[in-house]
Write a structure and sequence with these properties.
heterodimer, A: 611 residues, alpha+beta, Methylamine Dehydrogenase, Chain H, 4 domains, 5-stranded mixed sheet, 14 helices, B: 652 residues, mainly beta, 4-stranded antiparallel sheet, globular, RNA binding (chain B), UTP4 small subunit processome component (chain B), WD40_repeat_dom_sf (chain B), DUF7165 (chain B), WD40_rpt (chain B)
Chain lengths: 611, 652
């Protein structure tokens, strides 16, 4: 079943004042799947290393100039290409610091966009529909550019696709409410024009997404009424009837998304694979009318696979590069890793175990993992450890996410069934990758507790964002650590579980908390304790919670009496200190006022009275 | 009692000059202080630290060192000259060039026969002190670096000289150097900089104490020339040293503004061996302490922050007495502001120039505590720069605002001022009587027809003024043989009387109709700090440095009944404890029973019709009176109505 993982922020945004626009013009893949180039809507291009959430370089055109389209990376020459002020093509390398000093060439017609597929050659699409390969354009920048589009026809969207060896530029246009699709093949050049079927009057497509598979180009488009259509065009047999004649483009309704009240405004749909579509700006069917969701739908079974509410406004923009969705929302650009396992009814309905799923995007690794998984169920402990270590050291961790999930699940289930089998160091290593969460391997924490592997428990508590309160409490029962106190919890859920603690446990726990508190309040620099120490407020909150849960019991327990009295006097002294500080603050404020009144100028005439 | 309209004037931006050098005369208990602008001031420590004399500065005279020889005061400065001061006529008596470049230090032997000078050219120059002058005797062996500091051994046979990186000991007879004490430089970056020995002290037991620019106070054995002890007291410079007369206590002033005391005590109880132990640190200055004097009971310090601080040593004085309280002398003990009442004009006196301002006017009425709307802003009418090198020593503005005069030690200048609407005409009166050349105090008669100028031997020159010219009328001379200068002049409003007070504490009253001495007020032991004659009763009111108040009837030539009553009862202790002198007295034209006077921090209206405050009475009772209902006020009232809302330079 497809899943969206915990996202992270790539960078902040400066959206338009009325939030009509995210401030991002485009995101393009750079040298590999971990590097992207982000072009903002005005002047700058920034290179990010995604896994590090870190900018590596940034280039800006001069004040007054503006970038027309998203900058692209030509991986053959390791150069960036951008277009400023409609006609100026700029080319630079990563080591160039000043964009202004880099190469530029002015062309004779306004450019719409530059496209470049990974490993391919950059292509320039002009506003009036003409297409040139960048190299041939730069050999004579002022060459005449023909007009393909008729009057009042304008490009709405464009992309670039490589089908087998053929490079295609695909773009859509609008002319007086009619929408057209153009398929431009390069070398040899052919152009085919299709007319899109009309939807309800006045409704134009909100977004397009194109993909190539099985010798066909698949075009997916979303209308404001929530309809997602797919049109399929064969790449064979193109070019036979080149000309202005627009062929009708057949379509099929793929999805009918819930739109809530009114029409969709800022939304888009994007093809992830043959069965999955990512959609933003469309309401979640079970979460009311709010539109700020990112969802993955299965088109085969028309089921919602995964959904995530995005904080802040959604701008209807979405990009996808190798299992990561890039989505601007509110004032941030988030990266959300996802998986779309091969769909089957079972998985679509959530019945299939994770362990059996396969991963498509990375065939070699998946195959390898699959092999390992089979082998893991039988191999001896030492070999397992060696093998997993090898696997983990192989490449960067982001790609590992699905594999890690699988590995852990297998190991946990084997450990549960076979009491002799337990690989603490391997599990710890896997948890350390930070690719896991509790929901991926729900049995892991309990297994660790059962094996009394407190180190592993601690790691889980530290790294898992989604540990249920019941499990937290179970950990608490087993041992009392810093990490427990730092785990996120909700009072309401925790209280009933806390009640399960025995009175001895509670007293011990309270003593420990008191010790921590005293230690902290005596120390002038609590920050020195390092990141893994709980804060003073966290300790206090826990004291309150434990007291809330067990107050009656504690009052009746003779051993607890001294402890409670201590806590009481301590709290009393703190309250007194705070009230004294308040008084001092008051007096100091008065002093401030008095000073203001005393300020007299160079000269005044005053009335005084003597008695 | 009534409401008063107070003009709070804060645009007199007088800035005292930094203190450069100090010399204390133990015999007469006078402290001489030299300021950066070349002015020399004499403070009388036996009379409430009153600033009894001021010798104005001169542009070319930068005093670097001061030295008393008996009752004679000498200075040396960076202009390379020795100056002896005429303390009776408040000006330099003569100057002698030392021909050794800038003079850094000057020191006399205990016998008072010789002056030793430390010069820029590396020589110690000996001058013989003669009755009327000083005469060059000889040079000591010339050294490589400048001589910064000097100290005579009490026997008068040896002199220690502080220089760059070293101290030299000279034989005063032969002029040869006998010892060379190397002073260590500072650590770190200052290692490369020469260390300056800013101050040395040569004690009877041949101990030499030095203070230097590396922050050290060092104790040396002057016989063997060895270093005994180093006290690092500051990161910066030790600029000044002073030793008590019994040589058991020593103070060091630093550029951090601290003064550090060392005492010669035995480090362990009962042992005979004594050593110099750092005992106390005083922090009364914000900037460098440039000059120090160790008196019998106190440490006196001064420096860049311009304040003179008298810090009593609590083991030497009785606790909780006036002597035990810290005293800061910030501003001059005389008025630098002159007011032309009728014209609403103020004259401000600076060393370099005079400023004439017209007061603003207010609009409407207000209740006590209010500030009125200022309808017309105060206006600077004239800024008059003095002529010549000498600084202004006194100035006056006539009550009508039509005449303005100032004097330096060398000349008097008189100006006629004319006001036509918004134009001010200023004309210098060109020909002044030749007697009018060096005066100490100036004063106009109330009808602006006469100018009085105090001159030598306590005499007063009377000059008549009309339109453009002025003519000499008379010289008023006291019967006494006092040679001291007159520092206070007061002409009565009816034009009949002129009162003078001199630094011998004499007060003379002249009858201006007859142009002769009317009477002399019985001499009181403390300086008169302010005098005034009542316009209706012709009673003279005098306030002294010890805060005593007297009222003397000119008609009957005796103290008035009120004055006797006041003396009999005694002034309130809190009144006597004030530490700034009353510098001005005036009267309330609406109520003849009112005497208005002020010091630096308060002004007071004395209502002679009310009972005098007794010892147990609350002296500062204005707040109490304000809070009680009106009928009860009379029960709590007494004669002294004191208002401390303002810092006061002048009141009229």
């Amino acid at each position: 079943m497809a899943a969206l993982y915990e996202g992270y922020t790539l960078c902040g945004l400066v959206p338009a004042q009325n939030l009509s626009h995210s401030g991002i013009q485009g995101i393009e893949q750079e040298r590999d799947s971990d590097h992207v180039v982000v072009t903002d809507s005005t002047r700058s291009v920034t290179l990010y290393k995604v896994s590090d959430q870190k900018p590596l370089g940034s280039w800006t055109v001069k004040q007054g100039q503006s970038l027309v389209c998203s900058a692209v990376f030509n991986s053959q020459t390791k150069e960036y290409v951008a277009v400023s002020d409609n006609r100026v093509i700029r080319i630079w390398k990563e080591e160039d610091i000043l964009l202004d000093k880099a190469f530029k060439a002015t062309v004779s017609s306004d450019v719409w966009r530059v496209h470049c597929v990974h490993g391919g050659e950059p292509v320039v699409l002009f506003q009036r529909g003409a297409v040139r390969l960048l190299d041939s354009l730069l050999s004579a920048p002022q060459q005449p550019i023909e007009e393909i589009l008729v009057q009042e026809e304008a490009i709405r969207w464009s992309t670039n696709i490589v089908a087998e060896t053929q490079q295609f530029v695909i773009f859509t246009t609008e002319q007086k409410g009619d929408h057209f699709l153009y398929l431009q093949r390069l070398n040899p050049n052919t152009l085919q024009r299709y007319r899109l079927e009309r939807e309800e009057p006045g409704l134009g497509p909100l977004s397009f997404s194109a993909s190539y598979r099985d010798k066909h180009i698949h075009l997916l488009y979303l209308y404001p009424n929530g309809h997602v259509y797919q049109s399929v065009v064969s790449v064979r047999g193109l070019g036979t009837e080149e000309g202005t004649q627009a062929l009708p483009l057949p379509r099929s309704l793929l999805l009918s998304l819930p739109v809530g009240e009114g029409l969709l405004e800022a939304a888009s749909a994007m093809v992830l694979d043959e069965a999955h579509v990512a959609v933003v700006g469309v309401p979640h069917p079970s979460a009311g009318a709010g539109k700020d969701f990112l969802c993955i739908w299965n088109t085969n079974f028309q089921t919602l696979q995964a959904g995530k509410e995005m904080a802040g406004k959604i701008y209807g923009q979405l990009w996808c590069y190798s299992n990561k969705l890039f989505i601007p929302h509110g004032k941030t650009l988030s990266v959300i890793p996802f998986v779309c396992p091969k769909s089957s009814l079972a998985s679509a309905l959530g019945k299939l175990k994770q362990a059996k799923t396969e991963e498509k995007a990375q065939p070699s690794r998946t195959v390898e993992t699959r092999k390992t998984v089979c082998w893991l169920t039988t191999a001896p402990v030492e070999d397992v450890e060696k093998e997993v270590e090898g696997l983990l050291s192989r490449s960067d961790i982001q790609d590992l996410q699905p594999s890690v999930g699988q590995l852990v699940s297998v190991l946990v289930s084997r450990s549960l069934t076979d009491p002799a089998f337990y690989t603490p160091s391997t599990l710890a290593q896997l948890v350390h990758t930070q690719c896991l969460c509790h929901s991926v391997c729900p049995d892991l924490v309990l297994l660790a507790l059962e094996k009394k592997d407190y180190f592993l428990c601690q790691l889980c508590l530290q790294f898992f964002p989604d540990i249920p309160e019941a499990v937290t409490c179970a950990c608490l029962k087993a041992f009392i650590r810093n990490e427990v106190l730092q785990t996120a919890y909700s009072d309401n859920f925790l209280l009933p579980h806390l009640k399960d603690l025995s009175s001895q446990h509670v007293v011990l726990f309270l003593q420990y908390l008191q010790f921590l508190y005293l230690k902290y309040s005596q120390d002038a620099f609590p920050q020195m304790h390092g990141l893994r120490s709980p804060s003073l407020t966290q300790i206090m909150d826990w004291v309150c919670l434990v007291l809330d849960a067990h107050f009656t019991v504690l009052v009746m327990t003779p051993e607890a009496k001294g402890l409670l009295l201590n806590l009481h006097s301590f709290v009393k002294s703190q309250v007194r200190l705070v009230s004294e500080l308040g008084k001092i603050e008051g007096s100091l404020q008065e002093l401030n006022k008095m000073k203001v009144n005393k300020d007299v100028g160079q000269y005044s005439i005053e009335i005084i009275e003597l008695f | 009692m009534g409401e008063f309209k107070v003009h709070r004037v804060r645009f007199f931006d007088y800035m005292p000059s930094a203190i450069r050098a100090m010399a204390f005369n133990r015999q007469s208990e006078r402290l001489a202080v030299a300021r950066a602008d070349g002015a020399v001031e004499i403070f009388n420590f036996s009379d409430n630290y009153f600033q009894e004399k001021v010798i104005p500065g001169q542009d070319s005279r930068a005093v670097e060192a001061l030295c008393w020889v008996d009752q004679r005061l000498f200075s040396g400065g960076l202009n390379g000259e020795i100056t002896e001061y005429d303390l009776e006529n408040l000006k330099p008596r003569y100057t002698v060039a030392a021909y050794g470049g800038p003079i850094w230090t000057i020191s006399s032997n205990n016998q008072g026969t010789m002056l030793a000078l430390g010069c820029e050219d590396g020589t110690v120059k000996m001058f013989e002190v003669l009755a009327e002058k000083v005469q060059f005797q000889r040079n000591f062996d010339r050294q490589k670096g400048r001589i910064i500091s000097l100290s005579w051994h009490p026997s008068g046979t040896l002199i220690a000289a502080g220089m760059m990186d070293m101290i030299r000991v000279f034989d005063a007879e032969t002029g040869h150097a006998t010892h060379r004490l190397l002073v260590e430089r500072g650590v770190g970056a200052s290692k490369s900089r020469e260390v300056v020995v800013w101050s040395v002290a040569f004690l009877s037991d041949h101990t030499i104490i030095s203070g230097d620019s590396a922050g050290k106070v060092q104790i040396w054995d002057g016989v063997t020339g060895t270093l005994l002890r180093t006290h690092l007291v500051t990161k910066w410079d030790v600029l000044a040293l002073s030793v008590s007369q019994d040589q058991s206590s020593l103070v060091a002033g630093t550029s951090e503004g601290t003064v550090i005391q060392f005492q010669l005590i035995s480090s362990t109880v009962g042992q005979q061996d004594k050593e110099w132990v750092r005992t106390r640190t005083f922090k009364n200055h914000s900037h460098d302490v440039r000059a120090l004097a160790h008196t019998e009971t106190a440490v006196v310090s001064g420096g860049m922050d311009t304040q003179l601080v008298v810090r009593p040593l609590l083991d030497k004085v009785e606790k909780n007495t006036q002597e035990s309280s810290l005293r800061k002398i910030v501003f001059p003990h005389r008025s630098l502001v002159c007011c032309a009442k009728k014209a609403g004009l103020l004259l401000f006196q600076f060393p370099e120039h005079l400023e004439l301002w017209r007061l603003g006017e207010s609009e409407g009425h207000g209740k006590p505590g209010d500030s009125l709307t200022v309808k017309t802003k105060p206006e600077k009418l004239i800024q008059l720069k003095r002529k010549g090198e000498d600084h202004i020593c006194c100035s006056a503005l006539s009550p009508c605002g039509g005449w303005m005069a100032y004097s330096t030690v060398s000349s008097v200048r008189l100006y006629r001022l004319q006001y036509n609407n918004n134009n001010i005409g200023i004309t210098k009166v060109s020909r002044l009587p030749k007697d009018l050349c060096s005066v100490h105090q100036l004063c106009f008669s109330s009808d602006s027809s006469k100018l009085f100028a105090s001159s030598s031997h306590s005499s007063v020159i009377v000059v008549a003024l009309n339109q453009q010219e002025c003519t000499y009328l008379h010289t008023l001379k006291p019967k006494s043989s006092s040679r001291q200068p007159v520092h206070l002049l007061f002409a009565s409003e009816d034009g009949k009387w002129l009162a003078t007070a001199n630094t011998d504490c004499e007060i003379h009253i002249y009858n201006l109709d007859k142009l002769k001495l009317h009477c002399t007020v019985p001499v009181y032991s403390s300086y008169p700090t302010a005098i005034a004659i009542h316009p209706l009763t012709s009673n003279l009111v005098v306030v002294h440095a010890d805060q005593q108040i007297f009222e003397y009837s000119l008609e009957k030539k005796e103290y008035t009944e009120w004055s006797r009553k006041l003396q009999k009862l005694g002034l309130h202790s809190l009144w006597l404890e004030r530490d700034t002198p009353v510098t001005h007295i005036t009267f309330n034209s609406r109520n003849p029973a009112h005497i208005i006077l002020h010091d630096m921090f308060m002004f007071c209206i004395i209502d002679q019709s009310l009972p005098l405050p007794e010892a147990k009475t609350l002296l500062y009772n204005q707040m109490t009176l304000r809070s009680v209902p009106e009928p009860e006020r009379i029960r709590h009232s007494h004669a002294f109505k004191i208002c401390k809302n303002f810092q006061v330079w002048s009141s009229h």
